[in-house]
Amino acid sequence: MLRLSICIATHNRGGLIGETLASILPQLSDATELLVVDGASTDDTQQVVLSCIAGRANCRYVCLPEKGGVDRDYARSVELAGGEYCWLMTDDDLVVPGAVVRILAALESGPDLVAVNARVDNLDFSQTLVPRKLPLAADRIIGPASPDELLSSAGDLLTFIGAVVIRRALWLERDASRYFNSDFVHVGVIFQAPLSRHTQLIADPLVRIRYGNASWSERTFEIWMFKWPALVWSFDQISESARRAVCAREPWRDVSRLAALKARGHYTSRAYARWLKDRPLSALARLACWALAAFPDRLFHRLVRAWSRVRPLSPAALFELQQSRFAIDTNGRFA
After folding, report:
1. 160-180: per-residue pLDDT in tens?
2. 4-210 has which CATH code?
3. What is the pLDDT of residue 326?
4. Which of 155, 221, 261, 299 is surrounded by the fewest CB atoms within 10 Å?
5. What are the residue ranges spanned by the domains of the chain?
């Protein structure tokens, strides 16, 4: 019986996906399969994947005729999977040795969901930024009647799609299309309705996240200020306190959050004009939002970097500052 499908949706990751596959392939067994769904890559992703999985009967590569986006392509991977459970693994991170065996053991109790903890590293995995994305010391079970507990305790971990191992029949009986273009289709499916079985939280980090490999652009502003809150606050069956524990309904109203995004290069005059200019704000709040956006980006970044020497930041926060597109000076060095 095929127990677990490791489903990877990818697009133009030829330079990275080989390392990801190398961390997975030695862990496959007769109870597992690897499925890579390629959203019409235009680089050498296909060649890299086919080279890695050549001669392996439990590995499949499917190239879609066009890019559907992360939500559609992961949903398609679940449709094509043959396993009882689907692990929605990412295409640029690493699976630690023994992870697949650990997950298969967790599936023995028949959960609807297994949430896999992750460690956050820098781009080349030479530095650990966050040892455990979910600060959990021991495995934990959350009952099916506790969606509030699941969201409030594991919501941040579940923003990472590679944390999700879900029962395929559960996914297919729900309407994933409602969450296309949300960037978090998996979270929408999980919380669309109460689960019928328990959730297993695995405390040990079984995935190493390659942090900072995303596109450092103003899209980050849209995702965390609008898309993610809109999704979380659409879960009417979840209590307001549980939703608030994950994110504010309108985080863009918090100037301190805007300042953090400004320092990281995600909140600029362009972002203000696109996302906040026409929002209902008081005159004072609008002035504050505008002034922060209009403040010279590189100078603001330098000021925050200087302040961080007085009030040291966490490794992850400092790394985010270093990754800002405003962190590079004219000689190509970090400011």
Report:
1. 999 999 999 999 999 999 999
2. 3.90.550.10
3. 86
4. 299
5. 4-210, 221-323
